[in-house]
Amino acid sequence: MSEKLKIKISIADRVYPLTIQPEQEEGLRKAAKKIEAMIKQFEQSYAVRDKQDVLAMCALQFAAQTEQKAIDNSSEMLQAEDKLRSLNELLQKHLV
After folding, report:
1. CA gyration radius, the chain
2. Distances from the Cα of 70 to the Cα of 30, 52, 66, 82, angstroms
3. Could you give the 3-state DSSP secondary structure of residue 14?
4. What is the pLDDT along the chain (96 residues), one digit of tens a residue?
5. E strands present in 1-96
6. Would the pTM count as exceeding 0.85?
7. Could you tell me which of 38, 40, 45 has the C-alpha nearest to residue 61?
8. Record keywords: RNA-binding included (predicted)?
């Protein structure tokens, strides 16, 4: 069993101490950087008075991206299934 790692992640001028598996560190640090970049973008683009508003906008943005990827993947799967079905029918015709 690997040993846990204690790190500190800073988001919106607050520090969050975390105890994680070592293999999670890179992903968490990259996620924190993306959140910070998005916060900066929202603060520059909109007159935001409260960090909580910016964080809510970030959460919505990330959730929407995740949902859109799921929708896109589902659509791609349906297209792949249709193509496989068509190929299977074509093969069946030639094998008979």
Report:
1. 22
2. 21, 27, 6, 18
3. strand
4. 579 999 999 999 999 999 999 999 999 999 999 999 999 999 999 888 889 999 999 999 999 999 999 998 888 888 888 899 999 998 888 887
5. 5-11, 14-20
6. no
7. 38
8. no
Note whether 51 and 43 are within 8 A (CB). Answer: no
> How far is residue 5's CA from residue 28's CA, in Å, rounded to a whole number?
12
The length of the chain in residues reads 96
Question: Which pLDDT score, from 0 to 100, does residue 77 have?
Answer: 86
Q: Which residues touch 67 (CB under 8 Å, ≥6 apart)?
A: none
- Give the CB-side neighbour count of residue 51, counting CA atoms within 13 A: 6
CA 46 to chain centre: 23
Q: Could you identify the residue written with the tokens 């919106």?
A: 12
Give the whole-angstrom CA distance, residue 8 versus residue 28. 10
Report the alpha-carbon distance of residue 73 to residue 93 in Å, rounded: 30
Which amino acid appears at position 12 of this protein? A
